[in-house]
């Protein structure tokens, strides 16, 4: 019986030795898969950053255009205000002459 126990023990030991090598090879596959996923995510991140950079550049150009429009509108409001004041003053002078 002791021979049988030794034989069983040897099989367990030899099987135990095979398992870590299988775990190592499957661990290598897992690591390779994770690295591939990280590479894909890095590529996606790089694309997204490039898109963001282009959008920021476009936003900057549009902000400058909006600044120009704001200045133009401010000028129009000032001109309209001046014309309105002149019209009120001329109308007031015309009313005082007719009285």
From TrEMBL:
Residue ranges for the region (Disordered) are 1-30
Q: Enumerate the Gene Ontology biological process terms.
A: attachment of spindle microtubules to kinetochore
Compositional bias segments (type: Polar residues)? 1-27
Q: Which InterPro entries match?
A: Hsk3, Hsk3-like
Question: What GO cellular component entries does it have?
Answer: DASH complex
Which GO molecular function annotation, any one, does this entry have?
A: microtubule plus-end binding
The UniProt entry, under PANTHER family, shows: DASH COMPLEX SUBUNIT HSK3
Q: Identify this protein by name.
A: High osmolarity sensitivity protein 3
């Amino acid at each position: 019986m002791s021979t049988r126990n030794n034989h069983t023990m040897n099989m367990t030991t030899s099987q135990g030795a095979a398992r870590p090598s299988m775990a190592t090879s499957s661990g290598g596959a897992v690591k390779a898969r994770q690295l591939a996923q990280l590479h894909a995510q890095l590529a996606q991140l790089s694309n997204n950053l490039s898109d963001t950079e282009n959008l920021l550049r476009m936003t900057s150009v549009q902000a400058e255009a909006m600044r120009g429009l704001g200045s133009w509108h401010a000028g129009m409001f000032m001109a309209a205000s001046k014309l309105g004041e002149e019209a009120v003053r001329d109308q007031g002078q015309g009313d005082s002459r007719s009285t």
